C-alpha cells in the first residue's frame, strides 16, 4: 500500500494536525537527543486520548507498521528514535499531558503519560507534597519516558528510581488492548505485577498512556553543603557516615571531579566561587518535612566528624536559598558544560558501592594507557553507586568519529572493568538502540532469554519499537 494511503488511514482516525509528515517539522523527533543518529519516520502521530492511542496501535498492527513511542525525546541511548527504514511511525504523547488527580490523603498523583515531569512535580507541590523524581531533563522529559527508562536522577539515594514510585498504570498493548490499572494501592498482591513490565521496557512492550505515582511529604527544611574532598578521601566511607548520622534524611550525595566542576563553571554567566578539592567535590543535601528538626546543625556536626577523619579539605554550608541554588546549578550544568566544549563519550556505569574507588583507580589507568592526553569528566550519583565516566571529545576533533573510535575500544575496557566488579554498563540511561550490543555482551544469558520471551509474548509481530533493547525470539543477532 503506498505511503500516502497509509497516512490517510491514520488521518481519518485522528483530528486535524495530529498527523505530521512534513520532514522539516518532524526532524526534531527523528534525531536523538545527543545528535548521534537520525532515523526516518513515515509520520509523527499526536493522539490526545487513550482511545486514540489504542486505535492507532490497532491500525498499525493491521498495516504492519512499526511504532516508536516518544515522550520528551531526551533519551541518551537513541531509545525514542526511529530506525532509518522510514517504515515506522512515531507516537508522541506530548498532547496527553493532563494531571488527572492529586490525592493528598492517599499521597498519590494520577497523570497522563505525556505530562512533563516538572509539571507533575509542581502539581504535587501545590498540594503540599513531593514527587521525589528529579533529573536534569525534568523540564522536557515526560512521565511515560521516565517509566520507559526507569529514570533515576538526583534523589534516588532516599526515594528510589521511577520503578519505586509507580503505583498504577494505563497502557496500550501491541494489539490495541488497554491495560487499565490506575489504582493507588500500596498493597495489591494479585498475581503478576504487570505495570512493572513497562518500567525500563523503552517502548518495546506497549505504550504507557497514564500512571499513578507515589508522593512523599514535601520537605520544608533542607540543609545543603559543598564538600571539598581531601586527597585519598574514601567516598564509600564518607557516604556511609553521612547516611548513618543523618538518620536517613540524606536525599542527595553527588560526586564531581574538578574537571566537571570547571566545565560547568565555564558556561555559567554568574558562577559561584566553589571549587573541588584534590579528590573532587560532593554536593550533599538533607531534607525533612518536619519543622522540629534543625538540619543545618545536624549536617554541620556530621561534616565536623568527616573533617576530623581528614576526609574533607573544607565544607561550605549553604546559608541561604540562593547559595543552595548556586550549588545545585553547578552540578546540574555539567552536561551542558560538556556539550558546549565539544561533547563527550558517555559511560553511565554503576558498581557496588564497595567497589567505587577500585573502579575509579582501574578505569583511570585504562584511560592513561589508552591515551595520556585524554580528558575526563567524571561525576554522578555516587549515593547510588552510579558514575558518569565521560571522556571529553578534544576540541576541534570530529565528535561522531571520535565517539565511534572510543566506543569500539576504550569504552569496552571501561565496561569490562565495571562488569568485573559486578557492575552495569547502563545504570540509569537505558539500552535503547545504542547499547543493544552491550546488553548482548554483558547480559546474563538466562536473563536475556527471559527478556526475549517477554518481548515476544507482549508483541508477537514485533511492531513496538523494533530494533531497540532486545531481539524478539527468532531474530538473529547482528553483532
Ligand atoms: P524519551 O526520550 O522520549 O523516550 C525514552 C524511551 O522511553 C524510549 O525508548 C521511548 O520509546 C520510551 N517511551 C517514551 N514514552 C513512552 C510511553 N508513553 N510509553 C512507552 N514507552 C515510552 N536520566 C536519568 O535516569 N537520570 C538523570 O539524572 C538524567 N539526567 C539527564 C539530563 C539531561 C540533560 C538529559 C538530556 C537527559 C537525562 N537523563 C537522565 C536521560 C533522560 O532524560 C531520561 O531517560 C528520561 O526518563 C527520558 O524521558 P523522555 O520523556 O524524554 O523519554
Ligand atoms: C546527570 O546525572 C545526567 O546529570 C546526565 O544523567 C549525565 O550527561 C551525562 O553524562
Ligand atoms: Zn545521571
TrEMBL record:
GO biological process: respiratory electron transport chain
Pfam families named among the record's database cross-references: FAD-oxidase_C, FAD_binding_4
Cofactor: FAD
InterPro entries listed in its UniProt record: FAD-bd_oxidored_4_C, FAD-bd_PCMH, FAD-bd_PCMH-like_sf, FAD-bd_PCMH_sub1, FAD-bd_PCMH_sub2, FAD-linked_Oxase-like_C, FAD-oxidored/transferase_4, Oxid_FAD_bind_N
Keywords (A to Z) from UniProt: FAD, Flavoprotein
Signal sequence region: none
Domain FAD-binding PCMH-type: 37-218
Superkingdom classification of source: Bacteria
GO molecular function ontology, one term from the record: catalytic activity
SUPFAM superfamilies: FAD-binding/transporter-associated domain-like, FAD-linked oxidases, C-terminal domain
Similarity comment text for this entry: Belongs to the FAD-binding oxidoreductase/transferase type 4 family.
Name the record gives this protein: FAD-binding oxidoreductase
Species whose genome carries this gene: Bradyrhizobium japonicum
Classification of source organism: Bacteria, Pseudomonadati, Pseudomonadota, Alphaproteobacteria, Hyphomicrobiales
Amino acid at each position: 500500500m503506498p505511503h500516502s494511503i497509509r497516512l490517510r488511514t491514520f488521518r481519518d482516525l485522528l483530528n486535524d494536525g495530529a498527523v505530521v509528515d512534513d520532514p522539516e517539522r518532524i526532524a526534531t523527533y527523528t534525531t536523538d537527543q545527543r545528535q548521534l543518529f537520525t532515523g526516518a519516520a513515515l509520520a509523527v502521530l499526536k493522539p490526545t486520548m487513550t482511545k486514540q492511542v489504542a486505535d492507532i496501535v490497532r491500525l498499525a498492527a493491521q498495516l504492519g507498521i512499526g511504532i516508536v513511542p516518544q515522550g520528551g525525546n531526551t533519551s541518551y541511548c537513541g531509545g525514542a528514535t526511529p530506525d532509518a527504514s522510514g517504515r515506522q511511525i512515531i507516537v508522541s504523547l506530548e498532547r496527553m499531558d493532563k494531571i488527572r488527580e492529586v490525592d493528598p490523603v492517599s499521597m498519590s498523583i494520577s497523570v497522563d503519560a505525556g505530562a512533563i515531569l516538572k509539571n507533575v512535580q509542581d502539581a504535587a507541590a501545590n498540594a503540599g507534597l513531593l514527587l521525589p523524581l528529579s533529573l536534569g531533563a525534568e523540564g522536557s522529559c515526560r512521565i511515560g519516558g521516565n517509566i520507559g527508562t526507569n529514570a533515576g536522577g538526583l534523589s534516588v539515594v532516599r526515594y528510589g528510581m521511577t520503578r519505586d514510585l509507580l503505583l498504577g498504570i494505563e497502557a496500550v498493548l501491541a494489539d490495541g488492548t488497554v491495560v487499565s490499572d490506575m489504582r493507588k494501592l500500596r498493597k495489591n498482591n494479585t498475581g503478576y505485577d504487570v505495570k512493572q513490565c513497562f518500567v525500563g521496557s523503552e517502548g518495546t512492550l506497549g505504550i504507557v498512556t497514564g500512571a499513578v505515582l507515589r508522593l512523599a511529604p514535601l520537605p520544608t527544611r533542607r540543609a545543603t553543603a559543598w564538600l571539598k574532598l581531601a586527597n585519598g578521601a574514601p567516598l564509600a566511607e564518607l557516604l556511609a557516615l553521612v547516611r548513618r548520622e543523618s538518620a536517613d534524611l540524606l536525599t542527595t550525595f553527588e560526586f564531581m571531579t574538578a574537571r566537571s566542576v570547571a566545565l560547568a563553571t565555564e558556561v555559567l554567566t554568574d558562577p559561584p566561587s566553589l571549587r573541588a578539592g584534590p579528590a573532587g567535590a560532593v554536593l550533599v543535601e538533607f531534607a525533612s518535612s518536619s519543622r522540629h528538626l534543625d538540619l543545618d546543625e545536624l549536617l554541620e556536626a556530621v561534616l565536623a566528624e568527616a573533617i576530623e577523619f581528614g576526609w574533607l579539605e573544607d565544607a561550605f554550608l549553604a546559608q541561604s536559598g540562593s547559595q543552595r541554588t548556586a550549588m545545585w546549578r553547578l552540578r546540574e550544568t555539567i552536561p551542558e558544560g560538556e556539550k558546549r566544549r565539544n561533547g563527550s563519550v558517555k559511560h553511565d556505569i554503576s558498581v557496588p558501592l564497595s567497589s567505587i574507588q577500585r573502579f575509579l583507580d582501574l578505569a583511570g589507568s585504562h584511560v592513561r594507557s589508552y591515551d595520556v592526553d585524554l580528558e575526563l569528566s567524571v561525576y554522578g550519583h555516587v549515593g547510588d553507586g552510579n558514575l558518569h565516566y565521560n571522556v571529553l571529545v578534544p576540541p576541534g576533533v570530529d565528535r561522531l568519529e571520535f565517539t565511534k573510535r572510543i566506543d569500539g575500544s576504550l569504552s569496552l575496557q571501561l565496561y569490562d572493568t565495571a562488569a568485573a566488579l559486578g557492575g552495569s554498563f547502563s545504570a540509569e540511561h537505558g539500552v535503547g538502540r545504542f547499547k543493544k550490543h552491550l546488553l548482548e555482551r554483558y547480559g546474563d544469558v538466562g536473563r536475556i532469554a527471559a527478556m526475549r520471551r517477554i518481548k515476544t509474548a507482549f508483541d508477537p509481530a514485533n511492531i513496538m519499537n523494533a530494533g531497540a533493547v532486545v531481539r524478539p525470539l527468532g531474530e538473529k543477532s547482528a553483532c
